[in-house]
Amino acid sequence: MASIEIDRATAAKHSKSRSVDLKLEVVVIPVSDVDRAKAFYTRLGWRLDADFASGDEWRVIQFTPPGSACSVIFGKNVTAAAPGSARGLYLIVSDLEAARQDLLGRGIEVSEPFHGAGDTHAGPDEPYLFGSIRVRGVDPKRGSYSSFASFSDPDGNGWLFQEVTARLPGRIEGDGTTFATRTELAAALRRAAEAHGEHEKRTGGHDENWVNWYADYIVREQAGQPLPS
User: Fold this and answer.
1) What are 183-228's pLDDT values in tens digits?
2) Between the CA of residue 21 and those of 18, 162, 168, what are the distances in Å?
3) Cα Rg of the chain (Å, integer)
4) Pure H helices in 106-209
5) Do the domains 23-83 and 87-165 sit in the same CATH topology, yes or no?
6) pTM above 0.85, yes or no
7) Which CATH number applies to 87-165: 3.90.650.10, 3.90.1170.30, 3.40.50.720, 3.10.180.10?
8) How many CB atoms are closer than 10 A to CB 22?
9) Is the separation of the CB atoms in 177 and 214 below 8 Å?
10) Half-sphere exposure of residue 210: CA atoms within 13 angstroms, side-chain side
11) Phi–psi pair at 143, nearest 5 degrees
């Protein structure tokens, strides 16, 4: 058995044996100007959860990205990390271009789409591509997990959009079909509709069971299983 297969089997075994869920709740990002950072993350359209202070020596602000179960916090005397040192913070999106256009519409600078290719060592500012060089444009095969865009906050903390349309096997228990937002659900329905249109062309007729076909397509897509033809 290959090493990666052993690792996956071991991970699955450990996951099933756990009796306590471990849910990532908060990521701390270091900033130099708290009010400037608050204005930036407000402009992103993220939900402001808290802004607490204790005198002039301590302040913490919490934001949550739309549809995310994990929040970010920053503030004064919250972390000893250097401002701008948080890099490779991933934001998973189902439609990369829609996510880019949303930021551009808010006046936020965001990179053109790119993907990783080859095994060339990346520069120090690109550790999140796991040793691959950046190549302009989305992944030619439009593979899930393969297309990116990046942006930074005023301190240089680096964020990445990563387009994920089908989860890798093992990420979901059972059929586990869930959507964090209506936008993600709508995108999945559009993909199912397009695929079903091709299905009807191949079969040469109207499929009266299209509802079940859509459901099967969406469940398989999220679970990383072979899609119906």
Assistant:
1) 778 888 888 888 888 888 888 878 778 888 888 888 777 766 678 8
2) 7, 25, 20
3) 21
4) 182-203
5) yes
6) no
7) 3.10.180.10
8) 6
9) no
10) 15
11) -70, 145
* CA separation for the pair 24, 7 (Å, rounded): 22
Place of tokens 């790119």: 114
- Please report, to the nearest 10 degrees, the dihedral formed by the alpha carbons of residues 170, 173, 98, 83 taken in order: -70
pLDDT tens track for 29-81: 999 999 999 999 999 999 999 999 999 999 999 999 988 889 999 999 999 99
Helix (H) or strand (E) holding 104: helix 96-105
Concatenated DSSP letters of 24-87: --EEE---S-HHHHHHHHHHTT-EEEEEEEETTTEEEEEEE-TT-S-EEEEEESS--SPTT---
pLDDT, tens only, 165-183: 877 665 544 455 667 677 7
Q: Tell me the CA distances in angstroms from 149 to 48, 106, 185, 212, one per residue in order.
A: 24, 16, 22, 35
Nearest-angstrom CA–CA distance, 71 and 24: 9
Q: Where are the domains of the chain?
A: 23-83, 87-165, 182-223
d(CA 107, CA 48): 19
Question: Does domain 23-83 bear CATH number 3.30.950.30?
Answer: no
